């Protein structure tokens, strides 16, 4: 994977650890049931959070392409390791018991603090866990040789552990007025660390002797005698070592930056950065005396230390949120930053005097996405929209393929105007529609935005904003006096819903005033206009303000069928309007019992799912224009719905934080599970393999694997008591030594405990007649075997095959087969006996042996099971070879007993017909078989009469049901 990681030392012995299933921290005591239909699989789009990243460089002997760069970022309860050259994801660590508060790297090992634990990982596996004896959470951690230094969350104590054994070496208690926040090991200082506090002071400690060597008061660091230590702006938020020995850089929450000589105990220079407190500091190490500082509002400042701390450049809006960490690559003019906007960026400096340019980055949504939809038919891409005003394409198969659709050169404009970049972006997306049919020819995505009077096109192929903007406005010519006339546009409402036809040629948008316009996606020309008209009487009587029938009606959803024959539009007053796509004529209006929030159409099946305000999802057939299913039981407003590709399932998420799956043919709830966060949007893969969900308070997109694709799942009705909470998917499931998923495979291939409802016993009831379940052609062939022989009789005599040489004996037949003479065994004593045995015909076949081996009063199960495996020609031959009286008597008894057991009815009829037709003369001439024949005739007449009665009753019931429905 591009990283060299050594194996564990064989001499190191670690205590065995039970692997636990990743679970939510707030629900650690609950019991998680086994998944029924959807299994947590993976989280997408999470790059980093507010925890500072860790930069590691590795130089290899003989390497010509420079050192390898690795970046370690925090993902909440797990961590990710990135390759810095191309920003590709190497691997993701397992979930920690609690949220990770700090990360460090020690060679090949990754250390993470999680609650009161400090956990050591090697190759993504936990090998050592250290626990705070006071059970207090740990907030900061630093590697000091073979020792691990950690601060408690309250800043009152520092622990020193051994990194190899995990033993506690020492513990240091700080003064009550000193709250430690950061630890720094000054270069060349043996056994000494510098500890910063939230009061603005620092202390130098010897960790071996556990003594405080020197204290740096806040007044001497800032040279502000009047400053008080209780002020929040005096807290030290950044502490870093400079290239010069004894000099450190100190950043304060007030925005002050101080260069301080800790040996001489004097301040060298002081700078001030506007726009929030200092979050991180970094010294350039390639010979240029430049200091980079990051603020809490996303700005980066570059200071020239040779000029007394003169400001060189200010990169405003480098991140859309607070910058958590900033690091220079050793020996290179490249600056790496990470922010709370879920992004990691690399900045390249052409020269010390020119502003940097963005070299490469990896980013995700800054705020939780509220709208997600699968793009295309391969199920490999997701369109995601968020409140951060961005539209992104998230790849399901590889993180490096994810990108944000460009809205133009906004960064340069934001820099020139000194305003945040997010303020120049379009408002948040409220509706997405696409068609990948003509994606290589013109724009294929159409979006509606919050309180926007226009819809915008996008192109997935070029990863940017499209050419056209579809506006809802009327152009009016206004007279400007002597200067002539000017065009004035009056808005006709805000766009609420959009749709792209299946052919990809037309884009449709509906407004809040009840108007629907259709544009050509290639040229951007408006082609047609649809009007829903006044509110129908049946819908107006349901409204409280019945006098608003003639006023504006808000469009909440638009859909078109696969052949562009009908256009369906839903309104907020609870109606579905069906238009003729070509003539724009309103053909039918369907009034629903409640207001319509949104609609989703499955074009293959013609089923329209309607989300109503009364917490009921109704399924409508667009051909008959009737409600065919109603799904309720929601304890909160329905947020989003999705169809499966075969239209058998309908998945819905609601405000009660439950994701429900309904089986449309049966109308049953077949799966439901509760998540820790509310699922605001869902989308089902076109290939039926994954369900994608977006949740509140999470910037990621979560995938749930469909178990029905990998194992047999018993679809049973789910009750409210069966709904339990399931933890959200992690970034990666646990793997074994070969990299195979452990939890994912076991959950996907797990067989359900209940008996498969589709399997039936051999016989439902003793009073019913059971058939053989074999094809009808088998018994038809047996009955008409002679006719088939005559029809397939060759017209010409078969030609004799070419003979082999005379010295190679051959066997008779169509194919040439050589005869192998068996070796003769001389036995003078029993020659006559062996000759007699060879002349004795072996007439007892397996068919005959099974017939005689059965009990005469039994049901002949083994005999009929064997007979059903034979071909029609073999069965005909076996029946014809029944020439003895014992064989015929046993066969007649077998047919009688099988009819009495009500099994294999059609097989018995076929056997009986062939037997009687073949041996009729023998049966008539032998009186000893008369009794068997009479009993068989009586049983045959009784069973045939009963079968006819059952068929007649079934046909009558079916006809009655058909007439009633």
From TrEMBL:
SUPFAM superfamilies: Quinoprotein alcohol dehydrogenase-like, WD40 repeat-like. Residues 71-350 form the WDR36/Utp21 N-terminal domain. Pfam families: Beta-prop_WDR36-Utp21_1st, Beta-prop_WDR36-Utp21_2nd, Utp21. WD repeats lie at residues 316-347, 631-672. InterPro entries: Quinoprotein_ADH-like_sf (IPR011047), WD40/YVTN_repeat-like_dom_sf (IPR015943), WD40_repeat_dom_sf (IPR036322), WD40_rpt (IPR001680), WDR36-Utp21_N (IPR059157), WDR36/Utp21_C (IPR007319). Residues 763-962 form the WDR36/Utp21 C-terminal domain. SMART domains: WD40. The keyword Acetylation does not apply. One of its GO terms (biological process) is rRNA processing. Keywords: WD repeat. GO terms for cellular component: Pwp2p-containing subcomplex of 90S preribosome; small-subunit processome. Residues 1-31 are annotated as: Disordered. This is Small-subunit processome Utp21 domain-containing protein.
């Amino acid at each position: 994977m591009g990283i060299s990681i050594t194996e564990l030392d064989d001499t190191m012995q670690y205590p065995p650890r039970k692997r636990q299933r990743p679970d939510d921290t707030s629900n650690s005591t609950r019991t998680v049931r086994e998944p029924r239909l959807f299994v947590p699989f993976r989280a997408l789009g999470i790059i980093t959070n507010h925890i500072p990243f860790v930069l590691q460089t590795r130089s290899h002997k003989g390497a010509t392409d420079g050192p390898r760069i690795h970046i370690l970022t925090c993902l909440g309860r797990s961590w990710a390791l990135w390759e810095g050259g191309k920003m590709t994801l190497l691997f993701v660590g397992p979930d920690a018991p609690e949220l990770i508060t700090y990360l460090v790297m020690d060679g090949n090992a990754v250390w993470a603090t999680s609650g009161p634990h400090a956990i050591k990982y090697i190759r993504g596996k936990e090998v050592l866990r250290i626990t705070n004896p006071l059970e207090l959470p740990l907030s900061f951690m630093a590697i000091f040789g073979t020792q691990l230094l950690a601060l408690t969350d309250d800043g009152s104590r520092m622990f020193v552990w051994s990194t190899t054994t995990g033993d506690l070496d020492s513990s240091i208690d700080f003064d009550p007025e000193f709250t430690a926040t950061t630890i720094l090991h000054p270069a060349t200082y043996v056994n000494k660390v510098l500890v910063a506090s939230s009061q603005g002071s620092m202390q130098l400690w010897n960790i071996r002797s556990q003594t405080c060597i020197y204290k740096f008061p806040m007044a001497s660091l800032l040279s502000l005698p009047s400053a008080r230590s209780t002020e929040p702006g005096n807290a030290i938020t950044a502490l870093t070592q400079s290239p010069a020995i004894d000099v450190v850089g100190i950043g304060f929450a007030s925005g002050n930056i101080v260069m301080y000589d800790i040996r001489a105990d004097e301040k060298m220079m002081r700078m001030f950065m506007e726009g929030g407190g200092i979050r991180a500091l970094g010294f350039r190490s390639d010979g240029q005396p430049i200091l980079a500082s990051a603020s809490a509002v996303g700005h980066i400042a570059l200071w020239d230390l040779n000029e007394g701390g003169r400001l060189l450049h200010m990169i405003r809006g480098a991140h859309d949120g607070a910058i958590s960490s900033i690091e220079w690559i050793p020996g290179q003019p490249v600056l790496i930053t990470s922010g709370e906007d879920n992004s990691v960026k690399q900045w390249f400096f052409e020269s010390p005097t020119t502003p940097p340019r963005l070299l490469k980055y990896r980013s995700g949504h800054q705020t939780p996405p509220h709208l997600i939809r699968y793009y295309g038919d391969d199920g490999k891409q997701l369109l995601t929209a968020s409140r951060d005003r961005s539209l992104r394409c998230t790849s399901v198969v590889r993180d490096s393929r994810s990108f944000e659709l460009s809205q133009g050169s906004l960064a340069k404009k934001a820099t020139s105007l000194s305003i945040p970049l997010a303020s120049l972006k379009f408002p948040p997306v409220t509706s997405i529609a696409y068609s990948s049919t003509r994606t290589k020819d013109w724009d294929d995505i159409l979006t509606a935005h919050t309180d926007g009077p226009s819809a915008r096109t996008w192109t997935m192929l070029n990863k940017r904003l499209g050419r056209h903007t579809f506006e809802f406005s009327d152009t009016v010519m206004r007279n400007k006096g002597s200067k002539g006339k000017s065009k004035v546009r009056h808005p006709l409402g805000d766009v609420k819903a959009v749709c792209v036809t299946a052919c990809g040629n037309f884009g449709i948008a509906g407004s809040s005033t009840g108007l629907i316009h259709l544009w050509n996606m290639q040229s951007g020309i408006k082609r047609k206009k649809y009007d829903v008209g006044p509110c129908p009487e049946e819908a107006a009587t349901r409204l409280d303000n019945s006098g608003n029938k003639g006023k504006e009606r808000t469009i909440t959803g638009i859909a078109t069928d696969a052949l562009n024959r009908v256009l369906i539009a839903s309104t907020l007053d609870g109606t579905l309007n069906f238009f003729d796509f070509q003539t724009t004529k309103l053909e039918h209006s369907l009034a629903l019992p409640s207001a319509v929030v949104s609609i989703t159409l499955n074009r293959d099946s013609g089923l329209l799912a309607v989300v109503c305000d009364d917490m009921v999802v109704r399924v409508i057939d667009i051909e008959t224009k009737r409600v065919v299913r109603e799904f309720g039981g929601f304890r909160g407003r329905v947020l989003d719905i999705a169809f499966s590709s075969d239209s058998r399932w309908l998945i819905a998420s609601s405000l009660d934080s439950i994701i429900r799956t309904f089986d449309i043919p049966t109308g049953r709830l077949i799966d439901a599970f509760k998540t820790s966060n509310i699922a605001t949007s869902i989308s089902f893969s076109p290939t039926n393999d994954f369900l994608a969900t977006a949740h509140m308070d999470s910037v990621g997109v979560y995938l749930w694997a469909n178990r029905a694709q990998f194992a047999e799942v018993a679809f049973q009705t789910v009750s409210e008591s069966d709904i339990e909470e399931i933890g959200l998917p992690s970034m990666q499931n646990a793997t074994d030594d070969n990299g195979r998923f452990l939890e994912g495979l076991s959950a996907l291939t797990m067989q359900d405990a209940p008996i498969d409802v589709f399997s039936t016993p051999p016989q439902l009831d003793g009073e019913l007649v059971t058939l053989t379940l074999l094809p009808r052609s088998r018994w038809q062939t047996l009955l008409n075997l002679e006719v088939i022989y005559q029809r397939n009789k060759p017209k010409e005599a078969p030609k004799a095959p070419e003979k082999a040489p005379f010295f190679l004996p051959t066997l008779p037949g169509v194919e040439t087969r050589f005869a192998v003479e068996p070796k003769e065994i001389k036995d003078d004593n029993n020659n006559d006996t062996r000759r007699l045995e060879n002349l004795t015909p072996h007439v007892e076949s397996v068919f005959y042996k099974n017939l005689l081996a059965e009990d005469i009063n039994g049901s002949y199960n083994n005999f009929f099971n064997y007979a059903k495996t034979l071909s029609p020609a073999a069965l005909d031959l076996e029946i014809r070879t029944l020439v003895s009286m014992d064989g015929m008597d046993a066969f007649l008894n077998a047919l009688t007993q099988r009819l009495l057991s009500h099994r294999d009815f059609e097989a018995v009829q076929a056997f009986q017909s062939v037997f009687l037709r073949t041996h009729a003369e023998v049966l008539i001439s032998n009186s000893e078989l008369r009794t068997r024949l009479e009993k068989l005739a009586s049983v045959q007449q009784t069973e045939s009469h009963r079968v006819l009665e059952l068929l007649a009753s079934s046909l009558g019931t079916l006809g009655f049901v058909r007439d009633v429905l």
